[in-house]
Amino acid sequence: GPTILLLIYLLQEEMKKEFVEITLPAQLQNLEAILKDHNEGKGFFLGDKVSGSDLLLVRGSLYLHALCSTS
Q1: Closest by CA position to 55, among listed 69, 47, 24
Q2: Residues 7-60: pLDDT tens digits?
């Protein structure tokens, strides 16, 4: 019934909060370190031109921005 739906909603919100406050910052630090290892962060994740990795990270960052905006 409605009580179970409320519990599911609250659990999802708590999981989202943990992801945004704990998991995400740690993972972004890892990505930043990788990028800094490649041309001191002035280039791309792989090679010397835009790759699928760069595009995937842009897409992911747009999704994460939307997720964090709803917190």
Answers
A1: 47
A2: 888 888 888 888 888 998 898 898 888 888 887 878 888 888 899 988 998 898
Q: Give residue 62's identity as a one-letter amino acid code.
A: L
C-alpha torsion angle, residues 42, 49, 37, 23 (rounded to 10)? 90
44 φ, ψ to 5°?
-125, 165
Global pTM reads: 0.63
Number of H helices, E strands in the chain: 3, 0
Inter-residue contact 23 to 67 (CB < 8 Å): no
Q: Residue 32: which residues within 8 A CB-CB, separation 6 or more?
A: 41
CA distance 46 to 64: 22
Q: Which amino acid is at 63?
A: Y
